[in-house]
Write a structure and sequence with these properties.
The protein has about 400 residues and is mainly beta. The chain is built from 1 helix and 21 strands.
Length: about 400
Amino acid sequence: MKFGTITQTGLELSSDIGMFPAQYSANIQIDVEIDSAYQDYTPTANVGYPSGGPVYLNTSLAIEDDVLTIEPVCFKNDGVLVISLAFTKENEVIVTHPINIPIVGAPGASIILPPSNIWQQQVASFVNSYINKEGITISVGNVATGAPGSDAEVTNTGTGTNPVFNFTIPRGNPGQNGAAATIRVGNVTTSEAGGNAEVTNRGSSTAAVFDFTIPRGQTGPAGPRGQTGPQGLTGPQGPKGDTGATGPRGQTGPQGPRGNPGQNGAAATIRVGNVTTSEAGGNAEVTNRGSSTAAVFDFTIPRGQTGPQGPRGQTGPQGPKGDTGATGPRGQTGPQGPRGNPGQNGAAATIRVGNVTTSEAGGNAEVTNRGSSTAAVFDFTIPRGQTGP
């Protein structure tokens, strides 16, 4: 006989079981309705049960065919059962919030009943027969939540043959704070161009180890045809004439301006640090320059490879015929100024990997937390490499 049902909705649990009037019971069975979003996970139940002293004991129980069977050891003492569900898939573990269901002494609690559901069927049959014979109707009135540590109460506001039970059930004491979660970077792999970026957690929800797979940028298309070039260099030397003076040396071109530095990422408890675009053909890198409890991720993502060179521009017109004499040397070309490093604004981050999206080339990498500071859910948006010039 099934005692009731526990229903899962996301990380929340609810139940139609008000209490277990079943101290000294054996192998109580409960139906478990699992959220459809978790059908690909393997469920287990974590059950905390009273030991008769100040310390609670815990056991992990299998859920078979959507049925949880609670072992006799959990019902040796009255108190409160604390039940949560754990879902595992590969290296991912998700744990729901717990629910509390009281255990109260049953009539004849000092008599240990057989470890099967035979006694439950007998009790149910007897109670139903008695109620039907005497014409008794039983109703539930008000159900209130009392203060933590107070006594549970059941009062009858009806009559002896038509009772109306009002329940006052004390709220459980707040649990201790959980251990601080840790985050670290695992493997960073550069995949083939055109694929999707991936972030997987091969650790746990409280000790995350993120493995990153980031695609290279795709090779850009061929560049457009070059514009007509400037006037060509001085034409070939004219016929030999009288020796003239040597022409002046050309001036060195000015150095190009240095690019403006990018902005620093915004500080956060778990945040994205610097996002740097590296040279084409390199490997993507993600490093944590913070700590395991205050992570700062620095991303280095290679730009797309440069497209093939455009066709050569048209030849400029031939220079004028030089004066008689040796042609002067060509001036040196000035060095090109260094390219400024682009900066990126940091985005808030967290503990569990949510959605990983590959955005259009040229956009900003983003990491957002759609959870909380203690139950982080990381959504990653990583741009493809930019198209080559």
